[in-house]
Amino acid sequence: MATVTEQNQLTACAQPHSVSPENGVHLQPCKQLASLPALSEKWAGLNTCETNRTVLSLEMRKREVDVGSEEEARKLEEKQRERRRKKIENSARKKRRMMTRERREHEQDCKMQMDAWTRQEEVLEMWRRRERVEGEVKRIQQAEVWKMDRRQWEDDREPRVKERAHLQGERRKERERLEKQRTQLEEEWRMERAMWQMERRGVEGERRRRTEEWHAEMESKQEEMRWVDGERRRTWRLREERDKERSESDEAWERQRELWETEDETAEERRRRERERMETQRRQRKASWLMEKHLWERNIECMRMERRRERLAWLKERERLERERTDEKNKVN
Prior knowledge:
By secondary structure, the chain is an all-alpha fold. About 85% of the residues lie in helices and about 0% in strands.
C-alpha cells in the first residue's frame, strides 16, 4: 500500500494543469507518469515497459522500507509505552506502600493518643463520680439538717392564725425580730472588726516596740564599743608617751609601735566581725518577722472568708425560711 507522500505525488501528477503546456508550467520527465492512465502526448514516445518496471521496483523498495520502519517504530513505541507503564506502576506501588506505612503509623499514633485520652477520661470520670458521690452525701446530710431544723421550727410555731390583724401583727413582729437580729449581727461584726484592728495594732505595736528596743540595744552596744575604743586609744596614747619618754633607742620604739599597730588591726578586725554578726542577726530577725506577718495576714484572710461564708449561708437560710413562712400563710389565707 502506498504511503501518504506517494499518494500526494501521484495525485499531483494526475491533475490536468500539471501536464498542460498552455499553463506555462515547466514539467520534468517523471517515472511515475508511465503508470498513469491519462498521459500527455508530449511523453507518449517514452518506453512504457521500462518506465513501469522502474516505478514498480521503486515503489516496492520504498514500501518495504516504510513497512520495516513502521514495524520497528511500532515495536519501539510499544516497548517505550510498556516501560512507561511499568515505571508508573512501580511508582504507584511505591507510593501506595509508603502511604500504607504512613497511614499505619498515623493510625497507630492516633490509637495511642486515643488510648491516652481514654485513660485520662476514665480517671477524670472516676474523680467526677467520687465528687458527685461526696456532694450527694453532703447534700443529703444538709437536707436532713434543714428538715430537722424546719420540723423543730414548725413544732415551736404558735397555733394557726385566724385573724388578718393578728397575721399582720405577726409579720410586723417577725420583721422587727429580723431587723433586730440583723442589727445585732452588724454590731457583733463591728465589734469583731474593732477587736481585730486593736489586736492588729497591738501586734504591730509589739513588733515596733521590740524593733525599737533592739535598735536601742544596738546603739548602746555601739556607744559602749566606741567608749571602749576611746579608752583604749587614750591608754595607748599615754602608754606611747610614757614609753617614748622611757625608751632609750629608736629600734625599741619602732618595734613597740609595730606591735601597737598590729593590736589596732586585730581590734579593728574584731569590731568588723562583730558588726557583720549583728547585721546578720538583724537580717534574720527581719526575715522571720516578714514570714510571721505573712502567715498572720493569711490567717486573718482565712478567718474573714470563713465568716463571710457563714454569713451568706445564714442569709440564704433566712430567705428560705421567710419564703416557706410566706407560703404557709398564703395557704392559710
